[in-house]
Amino acid sequence: MSSLKMFEKPLGMRDTFPITYEKVEAIRQTGRDFLRARGYDFIKTPSLEYFDTVGKASAIYDAALFKLVDSQGNTLVLRPDMTTPIARVATSKLLKEQIPLRLAYFANVFRAQQTEGGRPAEFGQMGIEIIGDGTVFADAEVIITAINLIQAFGIDSFKITIGHAGVLNCILKDYTESAEQADKLRTLLVERNYVGFEEAVAAFDLPKTKSDALLQFINEATNIGAIEDIEKYVRKNDALEYMQQLMELISFANLSQYVALDFTLSSHMNYYTGMLFEVFAEGSGFALGNGGRYDGLLHHFGSKVGATGFGIRVDRLLEVVPSNKSAKQTVAIIFNDEQFTKALEHAKKLREEGKRVTLQAKKGLVDEEAFTKQFDTIVYVSQEDLA
Amino acid sequence: MSELTIAMPKGRIFEEAYQMLIDAGFNLPEEVEMSRKLMIEIPEEKIRFILAKPMDVPVYVEHGVADIGIAGKDVLLEQRRNVHELLDLKISQCYIASAGLPNTKMNEIAPRIATKYPNIAMNYYKEIGEQVEIIELNGSIELAPMIGLADRIVDIVSTGRTLKENGLVEYEHITDVSSRLIANPVSYRMKSARIQELVFRLKKFVN
């Protein structure tokens, strides 16, 4: 191991410089105003949680958790997501007071780096959770809110793909001969390995009708235009009806053009019990965010109510949000020692006019030209001004 | 129609895949000047090829700087990147196997495996319940058992000639390998029509 240089940071940790900081703040402000106007209350949870509670329940792979040990010997984790801590606090405290809950968050989460660069190990996440409402209206609200929120950021080119764990499970169960086969196919879908799916179907040696149906399903299911197209694969069930209602509600909101169906969508976590979705936007190579119904997580924390929500990654949002420069005018007041009082008064006046004013003693400047270049206007407070 | 960036491995796979695209009816120049160029623009089809090392293709695709790419299954298994595996092109087919000196058993205490594919090798031996030590090499893997560096090697086999010439025999067939068409998850959604069409057209020319 080579020794650390003074400038080094742990793998995946980043500094936020002024320009990025302002951009993040603008995102926070837009998102906060937007979500509060829709009745969501923001909450905060601690950065550290117990591994045995939040760490184990979280959807994040174990290897990606930052772990520490406290003085009693308990293993702690830096929170890897916000949904799990919110499920914890909702089931233990908030649900007793009010049902259903609409909660929002804007917080940093931590995921240890496994591979190379280009992936921060700490990043901001913004999202909502509706806890205690098991209806299709709550899921529709989550999707509509996600779409409108992305629009509020000024992003035009984006897509949301929706699937349903129940529909997929039904198809996998009906067309395979054992639970192991269904599980194997589900794992391949989580990995998005369509080639592997086809190979596995061939290897199972299923009756021809079943294997043909599965192969046709994999060819069509990632790109289904209308819910009717999936009906031929699934026997009538609640999940399918649920999706029909959901798509109808989205069309009532006139947002169907942003939504695509993908019934191969699957999560490695089994607590995603119902509909689930992913958000993609042009400009980033990675998904912007994801969401879905996770009643199973609430059950894990001992509550029998439904929960649904989504989260968007702020670091990826930064890549796709169109940048608009802040319009605030910047002024530098450069003063000589004797004019300090005068400079203070002048600065106060300009700030009241809504300008961003920097006070700088002339004596403190080494390279005056480089300094003054950063500002829109420069004001020198000199002896003459006093007169 | 949106621009499509395709990451391709240099060399023989590029030529075969390029021919498949021509067969599938894409309007590409018959002769493509391959010299030292790393990027080839085909304005007629709004396609841009980037030429990369085979091991690097999934990197470009995962980060989204290439929308789709052609990568060997060996590379995909080794790197486990977050890309969609869309189509088996069935070109450059071969397999990964373990090999060693004839009539030898693996060391009982700490069997050593030399390989270019540490993850594939590790996973394979884990699956069969064998704890091994991996020694990562970058080439001439066949040397390792001959000079006593390792008990077995895990490597690509296409004809088996290299093994034979170095006095090694194949022990276990681990997995089949061929070139796959892969896609970035975001591109797969945002350029879905173009990518689906390409898959549909190529599919007919897979042998």
Proportion of residues in β-strands of chain A: 15-25%
In CATH, the architecture of the largest domain in chain A is 2-Layer Sandwich
In CATH, the topology of the largest domain in chain B is named: D-Maltodextrin-Binding Protein, domain 2
Residue share in helices of chain A?
Answer: 40-55%
Query: What oligomeric state do the depicted chains represent?
Result: heterodimer
Q: What is the structural class of chain B?
A: alpha/beta
InterPro entries (chain A): aa-tRNA-synth_II (IPR006195), aa-tRNA-synth_II/BPL/LPL (IPR045864), HisRS-like_core (IPR041715), HisRS/HisZ (IPR004516), HisZ (IPR004517), HisZ-C (IPR053846)
Domain Aminoacyl-transfer RNA synthetases class-II family profile (chain A): 25-318
Protein name (chain A): ATP phosphoribosyltransferase regulatory subunit
Subcellular location (chain A): Cytoplasm
Describe the structure.
The complex is a heterodimer of chains A (387) and B (207). With 387 residues, chain A is an alpha/beta fold. Chain A folds into three domains: 8-155 and 287-326, BirA Bifunctional Protein, domain 2 (2-Layer Sandwich); 158-281, 2-Layer Sandwich (BirA Bifunctional Protein, domain 2), CATH 3.30.930; 330-386, Rossmann fold (3-Layer(aba) Sandwich). Chain A contains 15 helices and 14 strands. Chain A has helices spanning 18-37, 51-57, 83-92, 136-152, 165-175, 179-190, 194-204, 208-220, 228-231, 238-252, 295-300, 314-320, 340-352, 368-372, 383-386; strands at residues 41-42, 48-50, 67-69, 75-78, 101-110, 122-131, 158-164, 259-261, 275-281, 289-293, 307-313, 330-335, 356-361, 377-381. In chain A, a hairpin with a 7-residue loop joins β9 and β10. In chain A, α5 crosses α6 (179-190), α6 (179-190) packs antiparallel against α7 (194-204) and α7 runs antiparallel to α8. The radius of gyration of chain A is 27 Å and the shape is elongated. The mean pLDDT of chain A is 89. Chain B has 207 residues and is an alpha/beta fold. Chain B has two domains: 4-92 and 178-203, D-Maltodextrin-Binding Protein, domain 2 (3-Layer(aba) Sandwich); 94-177, Periplasmic binding protein-like II (D-Maltodextrin-Binding Protein, domain 2), CATH 3.40.190. Chain B contains eight helices and eleven strands. Chain B has helices spanning 12-23, 57-62, 73-79, 118-127, 143-146, 161-165, 185-190, 192-203; strands spanning 4-9, 39-42, 47-52, 68-72, 84-88, 94-100, 112-115, 133-136, 152-157, 169-177, 179-183. A six-stranded mixed sheet of chain B has the order 2-3-1-4-11-5. In chain B, strands 8-7-9-6-10 form a five-stranded mixed sheet. The longest helix of chain B is centred in the N-terminal third of the chain and has 12 residues, at 12-23. The radius of gyration of chain B is 19 Å and the shape is elongated. The model of chain B has no long low-confidence stretch (mean pLDDT 92). At the A-B interface, α7 and β9 of A face β5 and α7 of B. Chain A: It is found in: Cytoplasm. Chain A: L-histidine binds at residues 81-83, 111, 125, 129, 271-272. Chain A: Residues 25-318 form the Aminoacyl-transfer RNA synthetases class-II family profile domain. Chain A: Belongs to the class-II aminoacyl-tRNA synthetase family. HisZ subfamily. Chain A: It comes from Lysinibacillus telephonicus. Chain B: Heteromultimer composed of HisG and HisZ subunits.
